[in-house]
Amino acid sequence: MEEALFFKEADYTIYIRAQGHITANTCSDLKSRVFERLDTKPPLNNIFVDLKDCDYMDSTFMGLLVGFNKRFLRFSERAITILHANEACQKLLKTIGVIKLVVLSDENKQFPAMMENINTSRKAEAQLILNAHEDLIELSEENEKRFSSLRTILKKTVAEEKKDVSGDL
Hints:
By secondary structure, the chain is of the alpha/beta class. It has helices at about 25-40, 60-75, 85-95, 125-135, 140-165, and strands at about 5-10, 15-20, 45-55, 80-85, 105, 115. It is built from five helices and six strands; from the N terminus they run ββαβαβαββαα.
């Protein structure tokens, strides 16, 4: 199954459908779309993430879910809803600690018929990956241990990228 993320906003609700293996390289456009929408008015009523066709999700995608949830909670006092998470996805969400933050449901929620495929072919930026993992690290000491080396590397990469950009001016 091809890796894909589908996105649509309708009736003050964001709908996200994950298909195949969802990795950091799929997530850049999703993050910007959701964060931009969460920062505008009118506020959203719901965010639904359908994992029915998702075989695997990496920690960056799970970190984005945590970030979406944090921002959504600021405005709605409600958690995002994850629909139809299969056993593998539930295990990943539980291991990382995401499952305790979100609502899991097998409700047959009607998604919009025409959803936009927002796959990105560009490589994920270090800052996106770092932010996602910092959200995961906040969840538990286990995540701190699990991702501390990655965070160190990503911080160094981000600092070098900023240095390169400022040096080009």
